[in-house]
Design brief:
Layout: E1 2-5, H1 10-19, E2 27-30, E3 48-51, H2 59-67, E4 72-75, H3 85-91, E5 94-96, H4 103-118, H5 121-129, E6 147-151, H6 155-166, E7 170-174, E8 186-187, H7 190-196, E9 199-202, H8 216-221, E10 226-230, H9 239-247, E11 251-256, H10 279-284, E12 289-291, H11 300-319
Parallel strand pairs: 1-2, 1-3, 3-4, 4-5, 6-7, 6-9, 7-8, 9-10, 10-11, 11-12
Helix pairs in contact: 1-11, 4-6
Length: about 325
């Protein structure tokens, strides 16, 4: 099988090359550029292409891939909301993903954001480097004894819930499909989780139904001085409403690993560019906000798991037996 990787960073190449030793018949080429209608033409002669969470895989791109003879789309991530799955099915392109590479990696980053923004570590780091040892503006909250609200208790949400429980927090959660193994969680409806939590962390996929689920109405239900964390998808949150609420002093802290309009920024060095939109600049202007670069997944263990599963997906497809859990369409 010949596979063309799009938007391959040095760490991607290193990880996949390390894992591909067990797949001697697999031919892989890596491109630094991401996929588009124009670059999709480079897939001529390849059996499969591999893309990531920031790739725009719309109908036009998929049509171009199909015209090049591509039959398999390997997503080296769990999410696939950036893929026109209907068009892929109509074109006969199979999509395989990596549904569970390292839930702990994402959950640990979510708690890192919560702890850092709570205790203003980002501000203190800069102040101490300037020999400013004042504690003004650094007041935090004890997490122990407070209530954590987990929205979505799949693998990542479950891992976050366990971390919060270990911190001595009372954990409440909302999920359409409660996990009975999490016997320390008290499941409630969404409105009760929003209104009853001191820390709210999103761990759900992006769907048509939950687009902008965090908006001015849902934020109004939250406690004042709440800590809000999003490591899932930026479009779950109405950014304008979030910024307006930050200006109104609603939050003790906000930690975002994802945000709307992040696509052109994800994993790219933009330090010499003039950014086209002001979302990041506005968010970074607030002293109680931390933004990271879609890095929650980024651990050695997670990259190794992504590489192993992606290569196995390709092999299973070639054998005609892809795992159902990994199959999108």
């Amino acid at each position: 099988m010949k596979i063309l990787f799009y938007d391959a960073k040095p760490y991607d190449i290193e990880s996949f090359e390390r894992e591909r030793e067990g797949y001697p018949d697999m031919e892989i080429e890596y491109l630094n550029t991401d996929i588009s209608v124009r670059t999709a033409a480079l897939a001529e002669g390849y059996d499969a292409v591999c893309a990531f969470v920031s790739s725009e895989l719309n109908a036009d791109v998929l049509k171009k891939l199909a015209s090049c003879g591509v039959k398999l789309l390997l997503m080296r991530c769990a999410g696939f909301n950036n893929v026109d799955t209907k068009a892929a099915a109509e074109l006969g392109i199979t999509i395989l993903r990596v549904p569970g590479y390292s839930p702990e990696a994402v959950a640990e980053h979510a708690m890192t954001l919560a702890m850092a923004v709570n205790r203003r570590i980002h501000k203190e780091y800069v102040k101490v480097r300037e020999n400013n040892f004042s504690l003004v503006g650094l007041m935090g909250l004890n997490l122990c004894g407070r209530t954590a609200g987990i929205i979505g208790t799949g693998k990542i949400g479950a891992a976050m819930a366990k971390i919060c429980h270990g911190f001595g927090m009372h954990v409440i959660a909302y999920d359409k499909y409660p996990n009975p193994s999490l016997d320390f969680i008290e499941y409630r409806n969404l409105e009760e989780v929003l209104s009853g939590s001191d820390l709210i962390s999103l761990h759900c996929p992006l769907t048509i139904e939950n687009y902008h689920m965090i908006n001015k109405e849902s934020i109004a239900r939250m406690k004042n001085d709440v800590i809000f964390i999003n490591t899932s998808r930026g479009e779950l949150v109405d950014t304008d409403d979030l910024i307006a609420s930050i200006l109104n002093h609603k939050f003790h802290g906000v930690g975002l690993d994802v945000y709307e309009e992040e696509r052109d920024n994800v994993f790219e060095n933009r330090e010499d560019d003039i950014l086209e939109n002001a979302v990041v600049a506005r968010l970074l202007s607030f002293p109680n906000v931390i933004v990271t670069s879609h890095q929650a997944f980024f651990t050695k263990e997670a990259l190794a798991a992504i590489s192993r599963t992606t290569l196995k997906n390709a092999q299973d497809y070639e054998k005609g037996a892809p795992e159902k859990e990994n199959l999108v369409c």
